[in-house]
Amino acid sequence: MSEPTQPIADISKEAMEALFKRAIRNTLILGLVAAAVVLVASGWRDAAMLVTGTLISAASIFEWQRLVRVINAKLDNQQTPRSAPAVVIFFVLRLTVFAGVIYVSLKCFQGSVVALLCGLGLAAMAIGWEAIRMLRD
């Protein structure tokens, strides 16, 4: 018996780049539309928390995209980009900076934690949606 090929394994680098770009775009659009609705319904503090989570989500997708490029180069036995150490360092640094941003936004905006979590969850939702779309095609 032969093993069935997994459709996700045949994704080209260009398709993966497009997936990440669409996910960033969708995250920003969904976050800003939701923030406008929250602004009207609940106030500026909750909208600011949602925007903070959305921006962190979009930046996270961008960092994942850079990290995937480095990992793919390593897996394809290509020359590792010169920026590989910087990508890994910025990935770890990003986690620290975003933790600080979350802390400061919670203290300064004093908005809803749920709004922040919704904004942070947009990255996973956008990546999942784009992956499902790609697998369907």
What are the SSEs and their pairings?
Layout: H1 13-41, H2 44-75, H3 84-109, H4 113-136
Structural notes for this entry:
- The chain is mainly α.
- The protein has one domain.
- The protein has four helices and no strands.
- It has helices spanning 13-41, 44-75, 84-109, 113-136.
Name the helix and strand elements from N-terminus to C-terminus, one letter apiece: HHHH
Count all strands and give the number. Answer: 0
In helices, the fraction of residues equals over 70%
CA-based shape: flat
Strand content: under 5%
Distance between the termini: 26 Å
Average pLDDT reading: 86
Low-confidence stretches: none
The secondary structure category is mainly alpha
Return Rg in Å: 18 Å
Number of domains: 1
Entry summary:
With 137 residues, the protein is mostly helical. It has helices at 13-41, 44-75, 84-109, 113-136. The radius of gyration is 18 Å and the shape is flat.
Give keywords.
single chain; 137 residues; mainly alpha; 4 helices; flat
